[in-house]
Amino acid sequence: MSGYLTFERVTRVHGQGAASVTALRAASLSVARGELVAVMGPSGSGKSTLLTLAGGLDRPTEGTVRVDGVDLRSLTRSGLAEVRRTKVGYVFQGFNLIPSLTAAENVALPLELDGLGGRESRRLAQEALAEVGLVDEAARFPDDLSGGQQQRVAIARGVVGDRRLLLADEPTGALDSQTGEDVMRLIRERCDAGAAGMVVTHDARHAAWADRVLFIRDGMVVDESASEPVDVLLAGDAR
Amino acid sequence: MSVKHALLSLLAQEPMYGYQLRAEFESRTGATWPLNIGQVYTTLGRLERDGLVAADEPGADGQHHYRITDDGRTAVLDWFATPVARDQARRDEVAMKFAFAVTSPGVDVGAVLQAQRRATMKALQDYTRLKRSGDPAEGREELSWSLVVDSLIFAAEAEIRWLDHCEARVRRYAAAPAAPAAAPAAAPPATRAKPATGAEHAEEAAR
């Protein structure tokens, strides 16, 4: 598989013995750069487990998770932390912005934590904010931004620097219909520009922005649908 | 869909000939509902018969231009002023198939659901890609057809939500201990009440 993110028969069991819960069962999948994959499924189906394993926030009980070819299991704790800082960007439903930092400082924070100098961090943060259309808002605090703008800051923080894996957990959750669509458009653009994206959502309309939609139930990937190239549609062959 | 009223609303703006009408219709709907030229002329014929449009003598290009009459303008205003009735349950094949799948022995309801969800999800992705292909710097026509695509998107989304809901209910029903087997024998009136609504729908569908 040529994926930037790959799962090979990944199982995650929480707890032991009779009290154990299998959150994910022999899941295999692959997300290439330039590709956006959506994950849908009922609550408790294992969607979030998939995301935490992909981001190295949790380790599989069995099977292999690779990011950029690196088996996450082979890494030490600090090696894993480095992958998380340098390759993986997260976007959460609740934005998770720090209220006492400006938009630019929020975006620069992961770079500074990674040891990059302040000036370079700020430069990259400005770039990332420009990409999400928030140049003028760089010096504003989260409370002064709308929900959609805050989410855009969160996306900028997710992709700042050289992060190529974008993981989003219900990124449109708290937003109105049109703003949610704008967020999906933005994530889509980041993927078109070369990121590998995985979005967990319960909203089919937002999942439809992905190239592929995985449906998981009881910890298993049970279904998958892929879209036609758009030129086929425009030629009038839709449905 | 009322092609008649759609064409009338175009003619209310300016006189046009058949091919022009078809082009204007498609630019507003993004060719979501393909309209052949035969349909356009059949509809124009009926509108002329009913006194809602009038055909001019053919011009230098040999084309009949159609213009709207006063009665036609009234018909357009009425169309916009009157909500589309939803009183008759539309014959929805997905709902019907599912109703019969649930009550047919030996049918894998989960597989029926999943196949439909995959197909509807794919259609939803396709509509979304169509929408993405549009120019976001929208003019009125761009707005018009992207709203039509939105209506397809919302309908597909609603169907997927309904399918998820069906799946959850079927699973809950299957998991309920003993109740499924006991209910039909113990409570005949209740089981009779449900097929009755099913029969109404079947009648409606047959109309």
Q: What's the CATH superfamily of one domain in chain B, by name? A: Winged helix-like DNA-binding domain superfamily/Winged helix DNA-binding domain
Q: If you compute it from the alpha carbons, what radius of gyration of chain B comes out, rounded to the nearest whole angstrom?
A: 24 Å
Task: Report, as a whole number of angstroms, the end-to-end distance of chain A.
Answer: 30 Å
One letter per element, helices H and strands E, the order of chain B comes to HHHEEHHHHHH
Poorly predicted regions of chain B are 181-207
Query: How many separate helices of chain A?
Result: 8
Count of DSSP E strands of chain A? 10
Fraction of residues of chain A in helices?
25-40%
The oligomeric state of the chains shown is heterodimer
Q: Identify the overall geometry of chain B.
A: elongated
The CATH architecture term of one domain in chain B is: Orthogonal Bundle
Through-space gap between termini of chain B: 18 Å
How is the CATH topology of one domain in chain B named? Arc Repressor Mutant, subunit A
Which strand order do you get reading across the main beta sheet of chain A?
Answer: 6-7-8-3-9-10
Give Rg of chain A in angstroms. Answer: 18 Å
Helical percentage of chain B: over 70%
Notes on the structure:
The complex is a heterodimer of chains A (239) and B (207). The two termini of chain A are 30 Å apart. Chain A is built from eight helices and ten strands. Chain A is α/β, with parallel strands linked by helices. In chain A, 35% of the residues lie in helices and 26% in strands. Chain B has a domain at 3-81: Arc Repressor Mutant, subunit A (Orthogonal Bundle). Helix content of chain B is 70%, strand content 3%. A two-stranded antiparallel ribbon of chain B has the order 1-2. The chains are: A alpha/beta (239), B mainly alpha (207). The interface between A and B is medium-sized, with 25 and 27 residues.
